Amino acid sequence: MTYLDEKQIYRKYMEFFEVAERKRRWSVFDDLPWELAEGLDPDPDAVLCAETFCAVESYMPDYVGEGLNLVRESFGQAWWHVNWGYEEAKHALALREYLVRTGQRTADQMVDFETGLLNRRWTLPFTTVRRMVCYGALQEKTTWMIYRHRLAAARAAGDALLASIYRYISRDEAAHGGFYLDVIGTCLSEDRDGTVADLQHVLTRFTMPAYDLVPDYEERVRVMRAIGITRKIFLREVLLPILGRLGVDRRELARAAAAEAAAAEAAAEAAAGAQGGQATPRTRA
Ligand SMILES: [Fe+2]
Ligand SMILES: [Fe+2]
Questions:
Q1: Is the pLDDT of residue 284 over 50?
Q2: Mean pLDDT value across residues 206-215
Q3: How big is the CA angle at 182 (ends 248 and 171), to the nearest 5 degrees?
Q4: How do residues 163-198 score in pLDDT, each as one tens digit?
Q5: Which domains does the chain have, with CATH numbers?
Q6: Which family, according to UniProt (predicted)?
Q7: pLDDT average, residue stretch 205-221
Q8: Cα(162) to centroid of ligand 1, in Å?
């Protein structure tokens, strides 16, 4: 079950694709100032961040494979997903080329790194389309926010090449987040309570994709914290703008959280009753 109105999703996909084709396409080969790579001596934390983002983007085969299977019955979503995968692949490629062309990593090191990464497999954090759409909105907006912060840091450090890479990538991430928010808008108009419940469910379990699969995860998280990606910034730059655009307020989310907790409690009581041989079915509002 996809929950979604196929005609609307197709129209949203075509709008997204037209803007992407006409206004947002960029080339790893022609649009980045690679001539600046020679002699560049970037800060080690900036390099570690670029490598971490490259690693997360490198799980593209899993993101595309798993996601496409989930939405394969929806033309608009499946075609969107393929276009999205192409754009994510370019992100990994640009960052990978940056690390190698600036001499921060060798080509052999990158092959070893990627082989190590893909020995582990990313799997879907949620199993329904609507929850994955909610996850996609949060993940893309958070990724956009992180890249915008790194763009500012690269500019401040005088690294015009890395700044250029982050600028193109963050523009793509903003478009990805916008598409998911549009789809959530459609879901809300079809089933507001169910969509808010899914949004709340995903929000309370949200983590960025694949961070825990990347080697030296703890050290990378320490650097991310040190460069200022905090819960407060997440709230201010990701969550509140998302809720504002969707027209969902925090009281609605709190009500959904209370309903989910009550349902879980009732299910646990019913299971305990069944185990003791005295099932006492209960219903809750
Ligand atoms: Fe990306
Ligand atoms: Fe993205």
A1: no
A2: 80
A3: 110
A4: 999 999 999 999 999 999 999 999 999 999 999 999
A5: 23-272 (1.10.620.20)
A6: Belongs to the fatty acid desaturase type 2 family.
A7: 81
A8: 15
Ligand in closest contact with the CA of 94: 1
- Nearest listed ligand to the Cα of residue 166: 1
Closest-CA residue to 204 (of 149, 261, 276, 245):
261
Identify which ligand lies nearest to the alpha carbon of 169: 1
Report the pLDDT value the prediction gives residue 245, as an integer from 0 to 100: 97
Q: How far is the CA of 91 from the centre of ligand 1 (A)?
A: 5
Q: Which ligand is nearest to the CA of 58?
A: 1
Distance 62 CA to ligand 1 centre (A): 14
* pLDDT score recorded for residue 225: 72
Query: Cα 13 vs. chain centroid, distance in angstroms?
Result: 18
Distance 8 CA to ligand 1 centre (A): 25
Task: Quote the ligand 1 centre to 259 CA distance (angstroms).
Answer: 34
Of all ligands present, the nearest one to the C-alpha of 147 is: 1
- Answer whether residue 159 shows pLDDT above 60: yes
